[in-house]
Structures are given as structure tokens and as C-alpha cells.
Amino acid sequence: MALSQFLLFLIFFDISFLCVQCNPNYRDALAKSIIFFQGQRSGRLPPQQISWRRSSGLSDGSLAGVDLTGGYYDAGDNVKFNLPMAYTTTMLSWSVMEYGKKLGPQLPAARAAIRWATDYLLKCARATPGRLYVGVGDPNADHKCWERPEDMDTVRTVYYVSAGNPGSDVAGETAAALAAASIVFKKVDPSYSRLLLETAKNVMQFAMQHRGSYSDSLGSVVCPFYCSYSGYTDELLWGAGWLFRATNQMYYLNFLKSVGGNDGTDIFSWDNKYAGARVLLARRSLVNNDETFGAYRQQAEDFICRILPNSPSSTTQYTKGGLMYKMGSSNLQYVTSITFLLTTYSKYMATAKHTLTCGNLLVTSRTLRGLAKRQVDYILGDNPMRMSYMVGYGPNYPKRIHHRGSSLPSVAAHPQRLGCEAGFQPYYYGSSPNPNILIGAVVGGPNQNDFFPDERGDYSHSEPTTYINAALVGPLAFFAGRY
């Protein structure tokens, strides 16, 4: 091994043994990562730990004559975008499936977070025959305002896809979310599980029969916010993969074989599902020794070789502090999603006593576990700024996150309504810490120089999202069970 490679090995795999905060309190972080979803809830709220939030969006769907209340606001705004929300739901469900026992006392809260989303997604899929509702709220109007969700006065336009205006991407992801959740609820609520699975099959059939991207059908109301940049083939793979996992029906396996997909990827996110679908399907090859799925295992391992820092085929950058760095805007969304795949594939490898090679580099389950731990520990404070990027965790965390409800006084503190532009001065443009702590929220994270300015207006670094958190729940449970 060359000296430079050896140094990289030390940096990424041995630094955790030298650090001051070697083993963060993963159980505390896990509990908070799930509490966060309460702060993103839309609809009529029950009593909850994030008590500064109140009910909102109670007329959602009324413009279309349907009930579309519930679900989640995706980030710091007041819009419901179903593509990232469904991905959030799928990842939470996968976390419960893989790490349910390690979730311990947090398992009921995780199920509740999933059900808050699936109750809404069921409405979207079942309200009107031939339509799949995919969003509520005009994002262009919403982004001109800085107001609490409880005060929303922007138009709550309803968006849908149909046979004439297809959306295989959002439909495939919705099917994945419902199918994955059906597995979560199979034993604890069989009738609900059956409803989820029946609906997932119908939505997946729609995605398969009416091919097209929702970005083309809905244009400026989903782009540039949640454009389907990767196209829809990855969601067809992802959705069919989850339907196969839930049903074991050859119909979905045959469809998977017919779809294909691109050869290589080094990303996993709400937009690009190729790597996730391959890891999901590779499980059958590794754990069940079923070589029907051998190609997916090879593709999953090609992905891993593109991620590992000392792999000859790595295409992934790392900061000097050791953080995986994919994109300048909301980088931690890629870190948490890829870290989930690392811990999950590590688990499969350990079960199968499997190793892989990247060129002449031998990779074990411990290799993946070490890199995943480095990413989780960095997020929780083991980084050059000694800052936790999870709000409310540790002594030093972001205080000025880009989030309307957190940054504006709560209804309890300020009962008077705050209109569309009333929140900009002094709250949005002010330098005071946010009055309401959004417990567990993981923000977009530092820049490529490991620096985080903690500025409310810097949304690419300071905005939390549901899909950053959803992918982190599994790794936190994994490490909470080990340390």
C-alpha cells in the first residue's frame, strides 16, 4: 500500500479511536432524529413533544374537492411535495425493517412517523380514480413568504398526475413507500398493511403503464424544487423492487429484468434510486444465496467501490475533516442516504461472511462500518468545528436554521397572525437564534472546507429536510445497538 493510501486509511478508519468524542450518544441522537418529524407535520396535530407547532393545512385538497390533509412539509417551507415525502417514508420503513430491534423504545415513534405519511399518501392515491395527487401548495407563492404554517394564506393548489399527464417517478416512489410500509405494519396492523399493499400495487401499475416524468407534466410547480433529474427508470426499479420484497411475486421480478437501468452511480438520494434499488435486491444474493440476484450484488458493490475513499475506482470527494462531499447544496442529504446503504450492506456482508474487492483493495463489512461511523460521528460533532449538525443534540448546534416555524415566534408566544411578509423583519433577516428548537433536525451541513456559517438565509447549508433525517435513523439505530 502506498504511503498516501496508508494515510487515507488512517484518516478514515482509525481516527475514530483517537477522537475525544469517539462514541457519541447514539441513542439520544436516534430518539431526537425521530422527534424531528413532529415538527414537520401538516394537518390536525395530536399532543406531541414539539409542542410549539399547531394544526395547519386543514383545508388541503378542498380546491379539488378531496381531503388531502396530513403528511409532511418537506423542509423549511410550507409545501407538501410528494416525491421527497414518499422517499422519506420508504427510508423510514426500510430503517424499521432492517433495524427494528435496535430501535428499542423508539420503534413505536418510528412507526407513528411512517403512518403520518402513509395515511396522507393513501388519500393521494385513493381520492379520485385515475389520479395520483402529488403535491399541495404553490411553491412559487410560498417561497415569497416567510410565515408560520399555522398562518398560511398562500393558495393551496393541488397537483396530480394521470394517464394523460404521467409521473412514473413520483408514482414509482409512492408505490415503494406504500409497499415498504406494508411490511412494517404486517404483524402489528394486518388490515392496514393489506390496504397499503393493495394501493401500492395499483399505483405501481399506473407507473408502469403510463410512462413519463412528472417534471414534464407539472413543469414549474415541481422544477427546480424537486425536478426528477435522474428520470423515472430508477423509480420503476425501486418501486418494483419494493413490491417484490413485499409480495415475492415473479411478476415484479420479471419487470425488474425488463427495465434495466444505467451502469454506474455514486449517488443515492430522493431523486436517484439506482444504488438503493441494487442494495435492496442484492440482499437476496448475499443473505439468501440466490444468484438470480447476482447482477444486483455486482452493481451494488460497484457503487460501494465508487464511495470508498481509498478505492482505485472511487469518484467521491471527502473534506479534510473526513466528511463525504457530493454537492454544495444540502450535502448531508447524500451523506445520510449513502451511509444508510453502507451500514445495511455491511450488515448483509457480515451475515453472509462475505468480502468484496475494489481493484486490489479488500473490503470487509468492518470497512463499510468504519466509514459509516465516521460520517455519523462527524454529523454528531466529531468534526473540525466541533459542531453537531443535529439541532438540540450536544452543546453546540445550529441556532439559526432556515425554517419558518422554528424561526418565528410560536402561536402560544404570539397569538396574533403573522402575514406573508411579516416574518422577514425582524425574524428572517435578524441574527437572533431561532425561538423554537426543532429537536433532531439535521441541516444541510458544512461546505467543502468543513465550515458552517449558521446563517438563516443560507438555505443550502442551514435548511433541514425530512429526507436527511429519514436516512439517518437506520445508521443511528445500527450504532446505538453496537455501542
Automatic annotation (TrEMBL):
<feature type="active site">
    <location>
        <position position="463"/>
    </location>
</feature>
<dbReference type="GO" id="GO:0030245">
    <property type="term" value="P:cellulose catabolic process"/>
</dbReference>
<dbReference type="Pfam" id="PF00759">
    <property type="entry name" value="Glyco_hydro_9"/>
</dbReference>
<dbReference type="InterPro" id="IPR008928">
    <property type="entry name" value="6-hairpin_glycosidase_sf"/>
</dbReference>
<keyword id="KW-0119">Carbohydrate metabolism</keyword>
<keyword id="KW-0732">Signal</keyword>
<dbReference type="InterPro" id="IPR018221">
    <property type="entry name" value="Glyco_hydro_9_His_AS"/>
</dbReference>
<keyword id="KW-0378">Hydrolase</keyword>
<feature type="active site">
    <location>
        <position position="402"/>
    </location>
</feature>
<keyword id="KW-0326">Glycosidase</keyword>
<keyword id="KW-0136">Cellulose degradation</keyword>
<dbReference type="InterPro" id="IPR033126">
    <property type="entry name" value="Glyco_hydro_9_Asp/Glu_AS"/>
</dbReference>
<dbReference type="GO" id="GO:0008810">
    <property type="term" value="F:cellulase activity"/>
</dbReference>
<feature type="signal peptide">
    <location>
        <begin position="1"/>
        <end position="22"/>
    </location>
</feature>
<protein>
    <recommendedName>
        <fullName>Endoglucanase</fullName>
        <ecNumber>3.2.1.4</ecNumber>
    </recommendedName>
</protein>
<dbReference type="InterPro" id="IPR012341">
    <property type="entry name" value="6hp_glycosidase-like_sf"/>
</dbReference>
<feature type="domain" description="Glycoside hydrolase family 9">
    <location>
        <begin position="26"/>
        <end position="475"/>
    </location>
</feature>
<comment type="similarity">
    <text>Belongs to the glycosyl hydrolase 9 (cellulase E) family.</text>
</comment>
<feature type="active site">
    <location>
        <position position="454"/>
    </location>
</feature>
<keyword id="KW-0624">Polysaccharide degradation</keyword>
<dbReference type="InterPro" id="IPR001701">
    <property type="entry name" value="Glyco_hydro_9"/>
</dbReference>
